[in-house]
## 1
Amino acid sequence: MEWGFNKHFWPGLSQDVVEGVVKAAIGGGISWFDTAEVYGNGCSERDLSSALVKEGIGKGDVVIATKWWPLLRTARSIGSTIDTRLECLSPFPIDLYQVHNPSALASIPAQMNAMADLVEAGKIRAVGVSNFSVKMMRKAHDVLARRGVPLASNQIRYNLLARHAEANGMLDAARELGITIICYSPLEFGLLTGKFHRHPDLLQSRPLARRKILAKSIESSRPVIEVIESIADAHSATASQVALSWLVNFSGDTVVAIPGASKPSHAEESAGAMKMALTAEEMERIDEISQRFR
């Protein structure tokens, strides 16, 4: 589950809400949380850690992923800031440490070697990247391989309304190299829930940047929403659960998703997606209706 906020897309959450979301996620069987340094300059990491501790979760009970923010930084800051990341997440270790995007003032080899140093020092357990192109991902993989460290993941935007990873070779490359694709915005900022199609007035309460993205896509995505809502009715499920189930199963074991949550019910709903199984016919029907978004 993705853990963080950006005021241009998502509202900040009170600690009570944070604790409620974590409680609901844990109760639903979710054991992996994704956050980042840039989400409140460590606030998200600290809030997540605090909520997990309050829920009685200990080291080893969950998987924690966070990200180094590369903008205007060199690879040296990967090592110089890791203790702060560990302090913010204490008592939990960093199971997956990711380069947040390819904007660093450093080459990919320099960044990956700095990450490999952290693995060798026992400060992180695995290395990932985020928003890397296929070419960049391959480069990162090759550099780490020379150090005996696998590239665990690439976190990208991928969902039923943003299927570019299938057309640009990203999924094929990930399968070839044994890299997991982590999907952020798996519900396309809430569009795949269907609520904005049913109640377009809800857009007015959303942050401006998110509102613009949603408004542009409501009509073009309506056929997809109609299909997944129809399938959801047959399963006594929700549209978002169908969209998540399709996403994590369509490509076999290559893809995982990190749906966000701003209230406990969101976490409960996302967890419910793990309990449903779409038929082969339903998977194909969803694939067909969303082909235009590849």
## 2
Amino acid sequence: SMDILGTMVALTGVKIAPERPLDGVNLLPFLSGIKKGSPHDILFWQMFDKQHSAVRRGSDKLIVMVESEGGNQLYQLSQDIGESHNRIKSDKATAKELKRELDAWTAQIKPAIFDPLGTWDP
């Protein structure tokens, strides 16, 4: 997690170049109780193959997958921690908002410069 880097920077005092800011948070104030709540308003995930991704904002979690593997899924985790009730059809507005957030985040990700998980076949 990038938060580990943010926390390590805070612990070591290493200077981070302004042109290459960390995409993370110093977790020390949250661990020590100085700050309350969540260190993030929104969280994003993406699989190396870019066929699966997810976004969580508050208790809402959108999972984006190819149709052959289940398609998009929307869960309200405060009421459904086991992700058993897919709300993708009943709450289209939330799904659309989260997808817009995920697309904006994905657009700023640079392509991997290494072979993720040994998938390259020369």
## 3
Amino acid sequence: MIGIVDYGAGNLASVRNAFDHLGYEAAVCRVPEELDQYERVVLPGVGSFRSAMERIDSLGWTTALRRFAQTGKPFLGICLGMQLLFEMGEEHGQCAGIGLLPGKVVRLEPSVPCRIPHVGWNGLARIERHPLLTGIKPQVDFYFVHSFQCVPADASTVIATCDYGGEFVAVVGRENVAGMQFHPEKSQPSGMRILENFAGWMPAC
């Protein structure tokens, strides 16, 4: 079963409905103590890095999510959920993240004039080989909503980038942990393909 983490800042219904549509059993995980019963976990998220981490810390999710990641089971962060995977975020002041991936989250600052937040459809500019992106081509658009971007400290964790007045990281991954800055659950057939890939992903770690 797929667990969708509920820490009070996620797009839970859309993610669950997407998996239901694909025929996979998914359930909302409301307390950290239940996390270990799931075969794979999704960390969604909307809002700010600091407020999300304050909720995650206060509810006891931080330790539980780190422990789950150490099991080798598939773990996917979506949008803000991807950003929370990193060590530190700068939104509303520096704040420690979950720390599953090395790097930080900083304000999105395009090199040419672009509206912030970045809202709408955009394609992946560069794609590295990864099971979650099987069948995905660079010209296919995905739905983005964000004002901050991830800056990985390890370049090998970058799986795909996007161009919005300059390149930013759109997909990251290391071993059984992955993150996507866009919303696959809102990205029509290509996004559903990614969620289906995640449902069948067996990380080699």
